[in-house]
Amino acid sequence: MYVLIVSPNNFPENDAGAVRDGCFAKIYQELGYDVVHIGMNPDSEKGSFKGVRYYSIYQDNCGIARKISNSFSYGERLSQVMKKIIKNSGKPSVIHMYDIPKSGIELLRKYSIKNNIRIVHDSVEWYSPCEFKMGCFAYPYLLKNRTNTKLIRKPMYVYAISRYLQEYYSEKGLKTLRVPVIMDSKEYCPKIVQGNVIKVVYAGSPAKKDYLKECIIAFGNLTNKERERMEFHIYGADENYVEDCLSEKQIPEIVAHGRVAREDVTRALAMSDFSILLRPANERYTKAGFPTKSVEAMMNGCAMICNLTSDLGMYLKDEKNSIIVENCSSEAMTQALRKVIKLNRQEINEVKENAHKTAKEYFDYRIWVSTVKEFIER
Q: Does residue 184 contact residue 24 with C-beta atoms inside 8 Å?
């Protein structure tokens, strides 16, 4: 009895999607299933990680022509690995499918129907035209739109990461369960921060989704005396990016670290007071997705300074477990930073502790075990 997870993620835990795959694997293991994962690890064709056997069907994606070719050949590569797995382990009890190319989706759907196997799609995003230079004509945008509107259909079940996606798929008549970002709270060790300096961190890819420029400008709007109490560490952007945002103005309290390993980001979050994030609330990508970095920060005892997007309003309370920014403008962020500066160390640590409690209460995978069992086995 095993669950087959098929995913484009770099399993075992080299990206946010792989972490989500891993937590679902832990849920299935607690329900008594073995787990086999087929993903896109560029460094290892197969292996074992925390009891999960994994296989990779990765191929290099350099250039648009190669990407298109790999997309078309995906189904055949997936089929070959599946045949080996089924020969050794028999048919899966459940197929868990992330966002994969059409050829893979159709293969898994037909196989599940033929063999009367439950198939569940894990839906975590829906792009907006503003994310791409070519807007609604961008290839990734077109593929995602086709997946969500055409390819995900009965008899598939759906895990939806947000209420937006839950409502969309439910209206299509698909059985849907909302499962937000899930992590293993026991893998995170928040640190007790002392001292008067407030450490703020950003980690991510600002050009894609986040309004980091507005955050940097907001920091620049503070007076020199206000900034004396703060440090702003940026992971994922370099000094040139910061200088462009500030018109080459030098602010020593802003430190750009460039791209770093995920482990370094986790350590930085655990040693920081707040993680900063601004996104446009009304774009489809922010409504449909859920900011993984917010949950990762809270798991590390690092509270959020952010505006309310996606379903964050269900969990975040201003000055209790977070600092809420009114909107995604630099002016609103400046006001939020000034609110933070007025807090003493004890008050900051209380907000941090509450953020960590919120993460454990709502985003630990263990709280979803019984709900997932009822969903996939009914």
A: no
Same domain as 18, residue 33: yes
Q: How far apart are CA 378 and CA 367, in angstroms?
A: 19
CB-based contacts of 307, cutoff 8 Å, min separation 6: 277, 278, 279, 281, 324, 325, 326, 327, 328, 332
In angstroms, rounded to a whole number, what is the distance separating the alpha carbons of residues 53 and 37?
A: 6
Pick from 147, 305, 350: nearest CA to 215: 305
Quote the CA–CA distance of 7 and 100 in Å, as a whole number: 6
- Same domain assignment for residues 214 and 159: no
Structural domain containing residue 346: 186-362
281 and 233 co-located in one domain: yes
Say which range, 158-167, 183-192, 241-250, 355-364, has the weakest mean pLDDT.
241-250
CA 350 to CA 239: how far, in whole Å? Answer: 33
Residue 284 pLDDT? 96
Cα–Cα distance for residue pair 264/269, rounded to 1 Å: 9
Better pLDDT: 248 or 184: 184
Residues 6+ apart with CB under 8 A from 336: 218, 305, 323, 324, 325, 326
- The rounded distance, in Å, linking the Cα atoms of 359 and 351 is 12
Computed over every residue of the chain, the mean pLDDT equals: 94
Instruction: Give residues with Cβ within 8 angstroms of 128, minimum separation 6.
Output: 283, 284, 285, 286
Q: Look at strands 230-235 and 157-160 and give their pairing.
A: unpaired
Count of C-beta atoms within a 10 Å radius of residue 207 = 12
What pLDDT, on the 0 to 100 scale, is given for residue 65? 66
Dist. CA 269–CA 274, nearest whole Å: 8
258 and 373 share a domain?
Answer: no
In the sheet where 230-235 sits, what is the strand order? 254-258, 230-235, 198-203, 274-277, 303-306, 322-324
Compute the radius of gyration of the chain from its Cα atoms. 22
Does 108 share its domain with 153?
A: yes
| Cβ–Cβ < 8 Å for 37, 5 | yes
| Statement: the pTM of the whole predicted model exceeds 0.90 | yes
